[in-house]
Predict the 3D structure of the following.
Amino acid sequence: MAIGSANLNIMIKAARLAGRSLVKDFREVENLQVSMKGAGDFVSRADTRAEEILKEALMEARPNYGWLGEETGGAEGKDPTRRWIVDPLDGTTNFLHGMPHWAVSIALEHKGEVVAGVVFDAAKDEMFFAEKGQGAWMNQQRLRASGRRHMVEAVFATGLPFAANKHLPATLGDLAQLLPTCAGVRRWGAAALDLAYVAAGRYDGYWERGLNAWDIAGGVIIAREAGALVEPVVPGESLLASGSLIAANEPLFDPFAKIIRAR
Ligand code: IPD
Ligand code: CA
Ligand code: CA
């Protein structure tokens, strides 16, 4: 395994603590399915609890850093150049429905750039992590984006907008163009893991519109450090601020991006 910096070790430790709490709650979720409201409230408590655990661990270790968490919002730190960006539970709908595909995501940003990321799939005990310039890892294993070169062999992932989401027409247009060209499109419902899977070469590419910084900050650096290209859907926009991104292995990035950017 790579020898991580002190910060990376802090992140991994925090992710394990939050993951342990979520796994315990996940085992309970199935018993609660009878009442949707009961299950919904239970999951939002699990989510909040996980963020509290992360905040305590990360802010205790680095009290001067800033904070951005999905459940607790943002706060500038004494050190305005560094902040944690945290999604305690990415893939909430899967968690609520008893499907083991969700993760804890933690990123460390320095001067506006993500320098370390951890995405922990606690149900499968897969710890994805990366630091700038140090490569990407899953547990003890070095990660590399896939080497597939032909669209017909490629499997892509996306997130399908739900409720009254303004990105639905564009995403349906993407699917209409992309599906005839490739080996399939998956929609598993956890953006952080979608990026980690691009890093692991499981998906050849992934795109989604309208995400938040906490959904993607941890996964983006992992995908990049594994050799994938990750860019905003609209060239020149900020990746984290726009929340719309295209990630793919190098050989397929251009043909894939051409399809997605046609809308
Ligand atoms: C969601 C997941 C999902 C994506 C949604 C996100 P949450 O995050 O990442 O894959 O399609 O847009 O909001 O709510 O489960 O943390
Ligand atoms: Ca999320
Ligand atoms: Ca979340």
Notes: The chain has two domains: 6-142, 151-260.
